[in-house]
Amino acid sequence: MSGRRRGEKESTVRPAPASGDGGVWYSDDPRDIGWVRENIPCQSACPAGTNIPGYIQAIMEKEYGRAYEINREANVLPGILGRICSRPCEDVCRHAQPGNGETVNICHLKRTASDLKHVGHRITESLYTPSGKQVAIVGAGPAGVAAAHDLSLLGHDVTIFERESDPGGMLRYGIPAFRLPRDVLHVELHNALRLGVELRTGVEVGSGEGQTPLTRLGKDFDAVLLSTGSMAPVTLPLKEGVGKDNPDSIEGVEYGLYFLMEMHRGEKKTVGKRVAVVGAGFTALDCARVAKRLGAEEVTIHIRTAEEYIPVTKDEIFECKREGVRIKGLRSPAQLSVDDGGRLRGIEFVQNRLGGWRENGRRAAIPIEGSEFFEPCDTLLIAIGQRTVNDYLDIKLELDRWGSVKADEGGQTSKKGVFAAGDYVSGPTTIIEAVGNGRRVAAGIDTWLMGRQRRRQVVRIEPVDGPLRERGFDFIERQHMPTAPLAGRNKELTREVETGYDEALAATESKRCYLCNLKYQIDVDNCIYCRACIEVAPKNCIKLVEGVEIREDGTYGELLETSEWDEVGAIWIDNNECIRCGACFMVCPTKCISITRNEFVTQDI
Amino acid sequence: MAEPTHNVIIGNGSAGNGAAITLRERDPDSRITIITMGSLPFYNRYDLPRVFRGCDDWREILVHPLAYYDDNRITLRRNSRVTDVDGRSRSITFAHNEVMHYDQLLVCAGGRGYLPEELSDYYGLMHGFHSFEAAITTRRALPEGGTVVMLGGDMIGLDLARTLIDVGYRVALLANEYTFWPHRIDADERGGFIAALEHMGIEVVDGMRPVAVEEGAAGTPARRVVFDDGGSLDGDVVMPFYGLVPTAEFMLRSGVDIERGLLVDPQLHTTDPHIWAAGDVCQIWSAADNEYRFYYGWTNVRQMGEVAARNVTGTNEPFEGVDDERLHIGKDGHILSPFWEH
Amino acid sequence: MAEQRESTDIQFAVIGSAGDGTIAAGDILKRAMAGLGYKVIAFDIYPAEIRGFGKCISRVRVTTEQAYSLKRHSDVLVSLDDSYAIPHVGEVCDFGAVIYEASPIARQPEGGHITAHIRPTQLPYGLNQREISERATNAARSRNIVVLGYLAGLYDIDPQAFRDVIADKFRSKAAIVTTSNTAAFDAAYEVGKTVFKLDQGSLGEPVHAREGETATMMTGNGAIVRGCMDAGLDTFFGYPITPATTILERLAAELPKHGGRVLQTEDEISAISATIGAGYTGARAATATSGPGLALMAEMLGLGVMGEIPSVVFVSQRGGPSTGLPTKTEQSDLNIAVFGGAGDAQRIVLAPTNVDGCYRTAGKAFEMAEKYQTPVVVLLDLYLSNRYETVVPPAKNPFAPSMNKGLDAWRGEGAYQRYQKTDDHVSPRAVPGDEGGMHTVTGLEHSEFGKPSDLPENHMAMSAKRHEKLKAALTHPDFTICKRFGDEGPVDVGILGWGSTFGEILEAMFAAQAAGIRCSAMKVVMLSPLPEQQIVSFMDDCGAVLVPELNYEGQLANLISGALGRPVTRLNRVTGAPMQVEEILAEIRRLAQAKAA
Amino acid sequence: MTELLKPVYLEDKLKQVRGDGHLQYRSRSLPTWCPGCGYFSVAEGVAAALNRLEVALKDAVIVSGIGCASRFPFFMDTYGLHTLHGRTLPVATGVKVANEKLTVIAVGGDGDAFAIGGGHIPHAARRNVDITYMVFDNGVYGLTKGQTSPTSVQGFVTPSTPYESHDQPLNPLMMLLSYGAGWVGQAYAGRPHHLADMIVEAIAHRGFSYLHILSPCVTFDKTEMTYSNLDVRVRDLPPDHDPADRMAAMEQAARTAAPALGLFFSETRPTLGDGFADVAARATGRPAGKTKAARKK
Question: Going by C-beta distance under 8 Å and a sequence separation of 6 or more, which residues neighbour residue A493?
Fold first, then answer.
């Protein structure tokens, strides 16, 4: 029924501007937008909406520079994210679906685009005319930097206030160099900020001595963006005993976040022989691996639930274990025990059992009464999470119940003209989410400053002459990221562990991508229902259908299959199953199969 | 709804088969299906050392005659790897793309040999002992009187070592914290047991950390194990024995709780009302120790299978593991382990 | 585990849908095995659809000693399509292997995959047929070749034998076809070689043919063609019809090489007409068809009888009546072959029982047609036409180049009489081009001169002539019109059989003898005229006489009891499949016990 | 290659296809022709045509002989008659004579029609029996696995002509034109829309109509009558072609190198049914008009 309503919606499909852009169409029909969302799972899963098939195809064609630019459109820090991204895309990659093998190494390919682009590569930016508007950004972390970049493109004058001596936030002060080399970090931050963004480092925003009050920024600038992240550690909840309220007061106990930040500010850090890390995120793993490199003999990560449920990539856990770090599950620290000198001598844990699922997709852990047990250690690094700090605010902003600032999807806080983005709003998430959010908020600020939305997302539909893959590609094994030899790894603090793909590896891996942005479609008008396509299909990807479900939002749902000839309304290529091998295309007697490339693009309105 | 209930057992070991026959006795009308990745009917893993005594034909180590399955109306699904279990729809998906419905599911998938991550690159250069096929392949790779380099040396490995030495092979053991697994050995008694191993004729190398396995150079044995101090040890085959880790990957999307193994209550019930687990795949809540723990050894495993089966068919009895962890040295100087009694 | 078997008797069954290349796989397998020197009996079953749908089975029995039929149980089942193979899993013997697609494309409900049906006593071998093919060739088409490579590896069979056959099979196609299929074969061969073998690996050494002989493998139809060639066939007219089509095809390829002529006519009526016409000119002429075609030809055959014109009609029987079961075997055209047509139109009817017999019978058919101036019908059936056997062709051509009683044999005064009365009732036959032998042949009853005549005594005499002359065929030189096997002298049970079924009859008889039953079997090759004395004396020796036939009416049984007034026990099957040795054996047992009691 | 005109939306198409009612003419079971076979195109065309002409299922009879094409009736939900090799037309004639109200469609392959059945065609044509005869011409014998057929090109290599066929192919269109067929047209399976239109006209024509359909055999002909060859060879009849001009039709039909698609010739004259009516009239002495067979629609 909703289908009938959809019937007339073709009006929303507009031909390309008469720029001889032959056969290309731009559409905002919910069915096309829905198609791209569902059929390019990686792109939909990417908080920044990176056009993944686009850049992987470019790599396949050895156009590394173009691949890098495609990345940059969505995410200004490809070289960085290509190393330390949490890779939500790879979890949903169609190549990883049952029977299809392993996920494409999307992240490593992103890095490849950055690594292999020509030395003389020049980034392209499309600049809007100056708007005369001024924007202040507090915090030069990923969210702030991404927003600064977009806002400056949009023609606004941007000034970033950063309290540290260098920009980057967690990127620079949280992530160790063996995961993120500093030269890469420097180049990409610089590229992002060089379009006239004024960066004022060493400036603390706040009401205190020698600090710049927020209210002043409010006066001096047309808009203020708060992207100060979640830069305080969550305190360790102990049941009782020494250091119940301030565990880090005990010698041998530190918060992982501070541990890493101090190290990256250049302070000399040391650890004991036996190091215990409490926590389950990237920070915890980083602490453990740093500790190993600082000479610890025995490093154990203690987690409340189990390995299966912690939010880090399997590769990361694997490398961590290879370096000798142990992971022990179902335990929470109950209290610390110190020797006569007041030095940490060990931890009393309580045994947990798994509880239900929490809304953030993690598992709850429920301590078991009387199941305490003791484990000795010399150093404890606490990395159970981070929280946002608001004490620098000298204006009244509405907060949510976690103490984070409330903001609408455009980033606008309760005070007009004051925006917030990144972890500062959402609480600690991932770098890619911060970047994605930073860009969305930048768009929000632009709309607010200019009084109207200047850009929108539509689907670009472009005919493709023929299949771009062959069936043989689907049997290529996942190309694993080469790593520095295990021996000696733990002796160097800054040597990058992952050494990167060379051209050959990149070429091989890029072939594995199904190029899900290609849409294979049978023109029912010319189909004679001969099923030649089904005969050659490599999977159960071409179906006899009698109907299709239309969802509330106007997108397609399930295909209703049938095997009864007099019910068959169409022979249809199920793009969710399709691996874009093109076999059907080659055999169709009436040439009724078309291939189009469907991609999101932003159009000026 | 005249359909008989379908009891499905994943795993063709002691636990699974113990469960199967118990189910048959207690529920004569039910459908019983045993699913296994292997291509052979149920045989006793503890008989595998016989392969090195020249046993060549799998028919010789079968626990039951082949007619057993028809006689007891047990369907055996061989070469069938489960890729997914969906607790909500109560269905099992096989690697070969078949979907099977179950009413009650017993997961007895057991465990596979653990290989420390730092050695994972060298998996291809090591030999296995986890199945009849693997044992035969290993034996074929082993020349007359050849040398086996054993890494770790859990009780399964040491059991094999006894046979190997008995039939004239050499065994070099790289002892470490996994030696004697699953027995927990206190530092003070360890020395004695190591000595006992040497008394058995095993050449023990203690405290060396292997970092690599390589193909032997021409004229030398087929394999070389390299230590972190640069030293090395040659052998014809290298066999890792670092204890077992549960085979539970296929349950990750089933909705049941997993730590290392499937977490079950003392009644061997998982967190899904229709799924039980038994054997090396499950971590049982022990009120005594206030933790989830594993119980190893043939007697325990078989027991678990039967208890689980009884609970599937209505009773609600807890599993009481025979928990004799003691490893001792007999008067003849040989090691005695409850783990070896079968 | 890989110790050699001293003697081999292994039967492969390749089962799949018609589109899977099932038959092709079986063909390559049997040709490779025969090439290695094994004895092979093979038979394919396929549906009427061209491809894409319908069940195909190719069974190949490979032995070192001579075998006479296929076995009921296969030792190896290869599934190219589980939905068709599953019903046949039970056909695999204990410790027999079942080889199947390990990762099918389509989701299946429980029981949809063959692993659900393999019994604990059978050995499962999962194989990624499709993936191996696609890896090696970028397409799934070579799955059938993949299973062959796997078999070769698994049973340690010389891969070169397969590669040769593959190359030969795709000779006419583009080179890439051969190379990609070979690639698929080699890839799968490696897999088969390295896979863990659950049972002894290899086959026994083949027993090679004796000195000076070369064993080759051919089908019944192939042997017919070989016989035609050696008998010096001049012309062949045919119209495609299953299962006789391959005779047309093979002759079309072979005959022109030796100056003969083959024409595909517009229908069977035209085919037999042209054959008769050519026969009239003195040429050795033949056509081939199946039951429906024979029905169309009946009238023209009448002209052949009436005009006493030599012609040979090969009839490969299939399930009937009407279009019937075009791709299933049956022996139900005996009646029409012997009696079909208008009037008293007796002709010679021969039915070989195995592939070697097809060869001899084909050649002899031309001798007889010529010598007795009559149409000769050679009865085959789909099972015999299509089944492969290894045969050893004779060193020298056993057939007489001509047995024509020509014009030079004409004795007498006055004008030449085409139908002159003679002692052997065969009249000297002039053919166009013979000086002074001019005459007219007509379908009307005619006088010795060949002139139309409806005088009562003439019709009496001519009818007698046309029947009497055929009796001599019963003693035709160097031809076995019937033969007794098994125990000599009095026996408890005797089996009378004809055509392809006689293979199963022999195996059943051997089994019965092994079980201590005194029995013997007689094959009847000449069905018209019927070798009555031999049959009678055989029956005199038998406590009970069993006649197994693949027809419903018991057409041979009727023929015999009708002609001899002797009772026989019938065993009739019309399943479309060959008779099973076990069925015959059971009947023999029953009769033997009945006699004992 | 693929010129995208505008996005196609599945449910719009399904609505259209399932709405127009032609699916009812299909059988429930899937056709067993080889995937890719041109006959699928004919099946769709016939279903569409009967639907457009609003012929009730019960009033349509499809008669066929032996061969792949002759499996056609099994894949339609109308009445069907699967007869003997080459004997299609006599049976179809009998059906029509017995019941003038039926829409009778005779179908067959080129072998069934012009080899074994060739003798029947002239008589069906000259009698002008009011049936439609569609020959699916793939120039090869499919069911018996690839032998040469009367319309096979000269030099065609098949199992029965391993050294190339010597016979030259006959020209069905010229035959039918010379036999006096009242309606002669040609279509191509690779042009499904045009094919359907032609079938509509052929059935609508009053009298014997002959539609020749070029339909590739994807299994046994990989070199001659393939889609790729025909795609370039076929042409439309010239716009100025006059279907009333039999000789012009002959000329067009003679140009076999570039087969023309469309209506070659059409004339209306008394049918066999009219003849029977006339005989009845003479026999009964009543004026013919009264008893003339009911015309279509």
Answer: A176, A177, A178, A290, A293, A294
The partner residues of C108 in beta bridges, in order of sequence, read B98
On the question of pLDDT at B309 being above 90, the answer is: yes
Confidence of residue D288 (pLDDT cuts 50, 70, 90): low
Nearest to A58 by CA among A498, A599, A603, A479: A599
Q: D11, A548: Cβ pair inside 8 Å?
A: yes
Inter-chain contact D35–C240, Cβ cutoff 8 Å?
no
Residues of chain C with pLDDT under 50: 1-5, 51-52
Query: How many Å apart are CA A152 and CA A157, to the nearest integer?
Result: 6
Q: With respect to CATH, is domain D34-270 assigned 3.40.50.970?
A: yes
**Phi/psi of residue D79, each to 5°?**
-70, 145
Pairwise CA distance, residues C108 & A106, whole Å:
32
Domain map (residue ranges) of chain A: 1-32+518-605, 40-122+469-511, 134-231+388-457, 234-384
Q: Is the peptide bond before B182 cis (omega within 30 degrees of 0)?
A: yes
Count of residues for chain D?
Answer: 297
Residue in A541, A577, A575, A476 with CA at minimum distance from that of residue A102: A476
Q: Please give the CATH number for the structural domain made up of A234-384.
A: 3.50.50.60
Any D CB within 8 A of A568 CB = yes
- Per the CB < 8 A criterion, the answer to whether B89 and B182 are in contact is no
Map residue D124 onto helix, strand or coil.
helix
Nearest CB to C196; choose among B68, B70, B133: B133
Residue A386 makes CB contacts below 8 A (sequence gap 6+) with A229, A230, A231, A232, A233, A234, A257, A283, A423, A427, A428
| Subunits close to A (at least 3 CB pairs below 8 A) | B, C, D
Nearest chain D residue (CA) to C173: D222
The per-residue pLDDT for range A449-480, each reduced to its tens digit, is 999 999 999 999 999 988 888 888 888 999 99
The CATH class that applies to domain C482-596 reads alpha beta
Return the residue matching tokens 């021969």.
C350
CB of A546 less than 8 A from some CB of D: yes
Q: Which CATH class is domain B115-242?
A: alpha beta
Nearest to A488 by CA among A479, A480, A497: A497
Which residue is closest to A356 within chain B, CA to CA? B257
B86 touches A at CB < 8 Å: no
CA B152 vs CA B113, B116, B235, B338, C342: distances in Å: 11, 10, 15, 19, 93
Q: Which chain A residue lies closest to D18 (C-alpha atoms)?
A: A569
A537 touches chain C (CB under 8 A): yes
The architecture CATH gives domain C9-194: 3-Layer(aba) Sandwich (3.40)
Q: Cβ of A536 under 8 Å from any chain C Cβ?
A: yes
Give the right CATH number for B6-112+245-312 from 3.30.420.10, 1.10.20.140, 3.50.50.60, 3.90.170.10.
Answer: 3.50.50.60
Classify domain A40-122+469-511 at the CATH superfamily level: Alpha-helical ferredoxin (1.10.1060.10)
Model confidence at A11, pLDDT cuts 50, 70, 90, reads: very low
Distance from CA of C74 to the nearest CA of B (A): 20
Taking CB atoms and an 8 Å cutoff, what residues of chain C touch B66?
120-121
Domain with CATH 3.40.50.920 in chain C: 482-596
φ, ψ dihedrals at A335, nearest 5°: -155, 160
Contact A257, A248 (CB under 8 A): no
Question: Is 3.40.50.970 the CATH classification of the domain at C217-391?
Answer: yes
Write out the two tokens for D38: 């041109």
Average pLDDT over residues D223-243: 94
Give the model confidence (pLDDT) of C287-322 as tens digits.
999 999 999 999 899 999 999 999 999 999 999 999
